[in-house]
Amino acid sequence: MLSTNLGAHGKCLLNFFEKLQEITCHMYLPSTHTTEVNKLRYELFCARRGEVESSQLPPCEDCLFMHALRANYQAAIWRRSLQSQPFVANPTDCGWMTDEDGKLAVNWMRGSPAPDAVMQLLSCKCVRSCELPKCTCLSNGLKCTDMCRLQTCQNKAIEEEPVAQQSDSESDVDDIEED
Asked: PANTHER family attached here (predicted)?
């Protein structure tokens, strides 16, 4: 059963996460046979021809995984609450990060919200300045791109040299344990 494993291990187990994805898919579309949230997101997006709000889609696999890490961390603390000296894992290894002030903050995802090619297509229609809540780039936590109307805003991304990044498949191995 899914709930009996929650918090039992320091890391999110592979079979636990697969079952969580399946349950999440059925929450968004009870009749689906799809068991992977990214596939269901794509199917729902295509079925509605792109006319869909992000709140109508299940979370992407990366966001769901980070949420599962945080839920597992909290459940692990509760499981050990009666121990006199419980082991408590570092929260930054469990879906959290520290902000500029050193406070814990939610780490929503490990990767980019979309492929770089898609990110370049996003744009805002700001005229005088990019400010919340009107700027769609700022509202979504993104930097303004060359596609934006205003080319002189303070939210514009700074061009940097590309840095070699670890592939998703390499980083997933560290975060998921086998039973």
From this structure: BHLH DOMAIN-CONTAINING PROTEIN, CXC DOMAIN-CONTAINING PROTEIN-RELATED
